[in-house]
Specification:
The complex is a heterodimer of chains A (91) and B (201). With 91 residues, chain A is mostly helical. In chain A, α1 packs antiparallel against α2.
């Protein structure tokens, strides 16, 4: 490990934030606002996933190389998404 | 002469795990792409079907997995502090939560299957295409995810055994860290599965 791990206490705080964000997601879905709800729910999911990846998976404390690798993987997936919609969008 | 530590490469091991996780991201990612297209095609049907999924069970399972990620992280902290019993306690909690998740999933699937809501069921084949697509994606994506949870539980059992035998310790935490990474990724996948199947309106 390049740096020391966060303390157990920080992990508990992250967990609490994740649970709170889950509650917000469920609450927002109850508003029945169609596309806004979907985007909100996805946006919150991205925040939750970021917390898990950065803290629980330690990416925030790893050397920069790991973060670059991770972004390359996400970009690759993004390319797949993009190509699919270029295809599907013009059929 | 063989040196037991000759091939001990924690950094290399961790890089390898991350590369494997990237392959998992692409595996689930392409399924999410299929979902995105179908959500666009069958928006109303997806909304109808989503209401038929139990939102409370889904939210509950989300909390279960989030908590299991916490206990997994705390197990690693305990290992680093040399507190073996504590570590094993947290690993057991993680396993228990994983099994609880699978139990709830089995309950949900069983309920649906009992009502003839599964791919190729007679009643299912009479439903509109959009609904069949939703449930098809539901079973494949939550099924693949559940398989990953089950494998993760198995991996945690193996790590726990190695902690007991002293093969995984504060000096050699790599295997547990890697299993932790895998477990957290399974959690991340569910973080996206939950709203996309249970909260579509």
């Amino acid at each position: 490990m390049t740096h020391d791990r966060p303390s157990g206490r920080l992990y508990v705080k992250i967990w609490a934030a994740l649970v709170a964000l889950t509650a917000v997601t469920v609450g927002a879905a109850g508003l029945d606002l169609r596309h806004v709800s979907t985007l909100t729910a996805l946006g919150i999911a991205v925040v939750k996933a970021s917390l898990v990846v950065l803290y629980f998976m330690h990416l925030r404390y790893e050397r920069a190389m790991f973060r670059v690798m991770f972004l390359v993987a996400l970009a690759t997936l993004g390319v797949f998404f993009g190509l699919m919609f270029f295809d599907y969008g013009y059929r | 002469m063989t040196d037991e530590h000759a091939h001990h490469d924690p950094l290399g091991g961790r890089i390898g795990m991350w590369v494997f996780l990237f392959s998992e991201v692409l595996l689930f990612g392409t399924l999410f792409i299929a979902y995105a297209v179908d959500l666009n095609l069958y928006r109303t049907a997806f909304s109808v079907c989503s209401r038929n999924l139990d939102r409370l069970l889904g939210a509950g399972n989300t909390i279960v997995l989030l908590t299991s990620s916490l206990t997994m992280a705390l197990a690693i902290v305990a290992l680093g502090a040399g507190r073996r019993r504590r570590c094993l306690g947290f690993l057991s909690a993680t396993m228990f939560l994983g099994v609880a998740f699978l139990a709830v999933k089995a309950l949900e699937w069983g309920h649906k299957i009992a009502h003839e809501v599964y791919p190729q069921a007679e009643a299912m084949l009479r439903r509109p295409a959009g609904e069949q697509t939703f449930y098809g994606l539901y079973y494949i994506m939550t099924g693949l995810h559940a398989l990953h949870v089950a494998i993760g539980i198995g991996a945690i059992v193996v790590v726990a055994a190695m902690v007991i035998r002293g093969r995984v310790s504060a000096d050699r935490p790599g295997l547990m860290q890697n299993v932790g990474l895998y477990w957290h990724l399974v959690d991340v996948v569910w973080i996206f599965l939950f709203p996309l199947f249970y909260l579509v309106r």
